[in-house]
Amino acid sequence: MDQQVTMQKSIDTDPAAQSQPARRATLQDYVQLTKPGITMSNLMTAFAGLWLASYGYPNWVLAIWTMIGTALVIMSGATLNNYYDRDLDKKMKRTQDRAIASGRISPLKALLIGIGLLLVGLVVLAYFVNPLAAVWGLIGHIFYVLIYTPLKRVTTLNTVIGGISGAVPPVIGWVAVTNNMDPAAWLLFLILFLWQPPHFLALAMLKTEEYRAGGIPMLPVVKGFAETKRQMFIWGAVLIPASLLLFFYSSVGYLYLGVMAVMGIIYLVLLFKGFQLKEEDELPWARKLFGYSILYLTVFCAAIVVSTMLDNF
């Protein structure tokens, strides 16, 4: 009850909730509320986990329901994250025009949409997939909305904590098929967990001044670029062997092993170069590294799909 009262007070005192929207919300506003880019990248890893558990021969009906349920849970998390961060979004230039921050979508409406998406997504996973998939969906959602989102305001560890929720989608894909937490499922979780700090810290370097203006204690803001680069290298150095271990605990073949070994070496070289940079070269390096981290994840998922398919052809 106290939580509901606090939430209602937050809604009542929010200027966006009290004022008339500058213009009516469009369909695009509602789509952006769910952060479609983040949703799609997470669905990519969920599909890779499902494909791997299926040895390249998925039950397509099960796969479709898994993707739908997972997408709804992720979209819910993104919507509730936008709801919670609406005051911060007003302080940063790149987020000031978001639909809640600008008043086009009321906070209460966003809250109801987020809760609705979560409930439908969990029902889809529990009923059409299996209860374990729904449990993992809920775990990821709790870590993202109730733990990572509030902690983003108070600790530099927010990136690490957020990595837990980001590591859940491939696990949902895996347990959708197996209904069991095998070693490969834990490895998929570990790989995605380790991938995220270098990726998001590179973005944090690029957006340091915006985070500083918003009062968000991201690592580059609090500790500076030198410490950020050091931690990025450590996370990347552990990621590489973890990604190769998947070869020994799943149906991926030698194509995966070779491709990810090469991708890992390139990643480590790029991360190491960060220690040798002049100050004026740090942001271009961070931009390059951010782009490569996206490529690394895409190739990782593609290598799982292609290698599993070829190895079981």
What's the gist of this structure?
The protein is mainly alpha-helical. It has 16 helices and no strands.
What is the H/E order? HHHHHHHHHHHHHHHH
Distinct helical segment count: 16
Strand-residue proportion: under 5%
* CA(first)-CA(last) distance: 57 Å
Describe the structure using short key phrases.
mainly alpha; 0% strand; 78% helix; flat; 313 residues
Walk me through this protein's architecture.
- The chain has 313 residues and is mainly α.
- Helices cover 78% and strands 0% of the residues.
- It contains 16 helices and no strands.
- The chain has helices spanning 2-13, 15-18, 27-33, 36-53, 60-84, 86-89, 107-129, 131-151, 158-166, 168-178, 183-206, 208-214, 219-222, 225-249, 254-273, 282-311.
- α4 (36-53) runs parallel beside α16 (282-311), α8 (131-151) runs antiparallel to α9 and α10 (168-178) packs antiparallel against α11 (183-206).
- 45% of the residues are buried.
- Mean pLDDT is 90; it is low at 1-13 and 15-21.
Lay out the secondary structure.
Layout: H1 2-13, H2 15-18, H3 27-33, H4 36-53, H5 60-84, H6 86-89, H7 107-129, H8 131-151, H9 158-166, H10 168-178, H11 183-206, H12 208-214, H13 219-222, H14 225-249, H15 254-273, H16 282-311
Helix pairs in contact: 4-5, 4-10, 4-16, 5-7, 5-8, 5-10, 7-8, 8-9, 8-10, 9-11, 10-11, 11-14, 11-16, 14-15, 15-16
